[in-house]
Every structure is written in structure tokens, then in C-alpha cells.
Design the sequence.
């Protein structure tokens, strides 16, 4: 059982690092108004303002994912610290607050993405003669 717990901790740490990298990419897009070059996008925002809105929505989504990662880590800690009535209340309050913040962040992200205008990615032209 301890090995599974350690595996979950490692996976949560990796997820937090990936989420942080995605947040950094969103910060770059907000600051510059240009997209981070990724080949996996099939629709791209139409204008630099749309790029910034989309990046802000991505940043809020990443914040929600990071909060959920931290809440999962928080749920694994009581066995290490020792559970008393005070720590139980603190863990419950912190978990509820984190869940509420993650939900509100996701709802705001969905609302912002609804305002973004997209265009199809241009396919490279093959000019073979």
C-alpha cells in the first residue's frame, strides 16, 4: 500500500510541474499576444486580443488543475501529521475552499473561452513544381 501512495505522490508532483509549464506558456501568450508554437492546435485564436483571452482562460484552467493537485496532496498528508480534531477541521476547510476556488476558476475559464473567436489553422501549401 505504501508503494501505491508513493506512486500517487510522484504522479501528483509530475502533474504539478506540467501544469506549471502550461501556466508559463499562458503567461507568455498573455504578455506577447503571440501563440506558443504547438502543432497540436487545429483552431487558433483569430486576433492578438483573442490570443490573450484564450491564454487567460488557459491560465485559469491551469490554476484549477494546480489547486486540485494540491488538494490531493493535502488529502495524503493527515496520516503523516497525525489527525486531531483541529487538523481535521483545517483540512476540511482548506479542501472545501480549494474545491470551490477550482470550480469557480473553471467556470470563468469556460466563460472566457466562449468569447474567443477562432480560425482554422492554415495548412502549409505544397509548391512542388
Sequence:
Amino acid at each position: 500500500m505504501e508503494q501505491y501512495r508513493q506512486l500517487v505522490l510522484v504522479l501528483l508532483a509530475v502533474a504539478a510541474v506540467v501544469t506549471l509549464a502550461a501556466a508559463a506558456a499562458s503567461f507568455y501568450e498573455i504578455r506577447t499576444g503571440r501563440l506558443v508554437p504547438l502543432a497540436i492546435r487545429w483552431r487558433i485564436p483569430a486576433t492578438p486580443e483573442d490570443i490573450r483571452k484564450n491564454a487567460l482562460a488557459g491560465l485559469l484552467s491551469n490554476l484549477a488543475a494546480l489547486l486540485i493537485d494540491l488538494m490531493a496532496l493535502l488529502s495524503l498528508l493527515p496520516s503523516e501529521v497525525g489527525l486531531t480534531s483541529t487538523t481535521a477541521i483545517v483540512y476540511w476547510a482548506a479542501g472545501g475552499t480549494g474545491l470551490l476556488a477550482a470550480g469557480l476558476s473553471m467556470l470563468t475559464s469556460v466563460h472566457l473561452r466562449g468569447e474567443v473567436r477562432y480560425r482554422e489553422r492554415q495548412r502549409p501549401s505544397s509548391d512542388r513544381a
